[in-house]
Amino acid sequence: GPKIKLATDSKLAAIQRKNAVERIARLQSKGVIVQEYTHQPLLWAGSKFSLRAFAVIASVNPLIVLYRDGPASRSPLKYRADDFSDKLSHMPNVHREGFNWNMRRPPLQKLQQYLDTNFKSKKGYVDKTLRPSMQAIMADVVRSLVRQRGDRHYWPLPGTMKILCFDFLLDKNFKLYFHETNSNCVVFPGYPHLKGPVQEQTQQAITVDSLLFAEELLYRKKYGLSLKPTSFFRWKELKQSFDLLIDETKK
């Protein structure tokens, strides 16, 4: 693209610096609102919540990525928009003992049950709208991150499998917001005695089932077998734990 050349003229440079200082001063005097949508989140039984999902990058060439629902995270306390005295009402992903732990980490389908009861127009929303929207965003993000061999930012490294977690939020109008992604994925916080069935099933899928898939993938590459995930020996069991997010194998 075109190169941008900074002004060398001393007077012009001085004007640019003055404008920048004035702009910063205006922002500081007014304050800056960050992520305003969190002010009107969709509430789950009065609690603010976020949604987590996992992407397992099993292969870069061809690109094969698996998708797994993660648990929702509900704030320990009821949400109060204008009260910041207790931040626990604003932080759905806080890791803290107590507060009915398993109820605060429900599976995604529990959200649909809540919507069926409280939002009659949202029948089938999770399967028909929410999950496909999350998956579309995740696929775009993964493709933007992955680099092929020869790129100096080649990632993930050869022979490795990468797990990414994605966090989303919904506002009161059911608009979906992609919050963040990272590779430091916590399936459950560091309280072993607080693990619930959702966390245990997710941990099994992420740490065991995905490795079995990667193992068979390497075997198939070595012996020239089809890399189509649906042809894998373990696919019948694997599809109980994962959906295919991206499959760029040849037909």
From TrEMBL:
Q: InterPro entries in the record, alphabetically?
A: TTL/TTLL_fam (IPR004344)
Pfam family name, one: TTL
The UniProt entry, under PROSITE patterns, shows:
TTL
Under Gene3D superfamilies, the record lists:
ATP-grasp fold, B domain
**This protein is called what?**
Tubulin tyrosine ligase
